[in-house]
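Appendix B, example 12.
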Amino acid sequence: MMGTDDLAALLETLCPMFVLVGADGQISRVGPTLQKLRPDQSMAGRQFPDVFELVRPRDVISLSSLLASAGAKLHLKLRETPRTALKGLIAPLPDGKGAVINLSFGISILDAVRDYALTSADFSGTDLAIELLYLVEAKSAAMEASRSLNLRLQGAMLAAEEQAVTDMLTGLKNRRAMDGTIGQLITGHLPFALMHLDLDFFKSVNDQFGHAAGDYVLQQAARIMVEETRNGDTVARIGGDEFVIIFPGLSDEDILSAIATRLIDRLQAPILFEGNTCRISASIGIALSSQLKPPTAAEILNAADLALYEAKRTGRSRHCLYSVVAGRQNGNAEHGVASQL
């Protein structure tokens, strides 16, 4: 007849989550995977009810009544944290010498694998749990690949959207972004100021030192404009050496004059490129949305253009404000060219 040790060795191979209990309810051996759930506390030598809480069937209160449940499905929990849920079947040993209880994780297997770092080596080779784990792993890998792909696609889409409204040379907004910003401000009935800035003598830089020098000068000019404006302002390059700056909520002529003066002063400073001294300046035309009733994008851009033309006509390196002449002619307001701030 097979001894207890031989039976335990056989069960370790076939049922690595078995419990071998004696007639008195004391645990004599447990499978290696089951013991792995409590690596610092041996289950052998303890009473079965001290280690496991029987959830179902509820009417079982002793080992004898448990043995009478042979063939019935058992639902148990470990008494100590983590209180992993288990399922089991009980098989009585001959001559009333106790019983073998074969346990499994059931639906809680995923939690158990996570909580106890179990691997395929902890399960019987015929255990369907292994196939379930492979399926879960494959699903997880597929979901992770899908998530990674979605993140890359979202990143590419955001990058494409950003490129669509960005001037690639200077990093400023482009004409498309400018049009969108003006449209939003007008639609929202929000007051704003618009500066049209043109770099003076920029063509001379290209002619004397080449386009690389011109590109560098444009980048430095863009940096200065960003530094002299607020985070909520829009600085856009709309042409070769033409820029538009939009100031939401700003209509104070003194403040706009101070900003324009700082821009002109800084842009007049020599810019060094590969040992060459590049010199430019700036002419600026300014228009306020409040000067046009109601404003349209085309009208405020045209107003700023007229003011810019006046700044250039009167000597460059200066700024002018578009003005509206009081009075009516043929039922329409007469628009003056510009006035120096």
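The radius of gyration is 41 Å. The CA atoms of residues 208 and 278 lie 9 Å apart.
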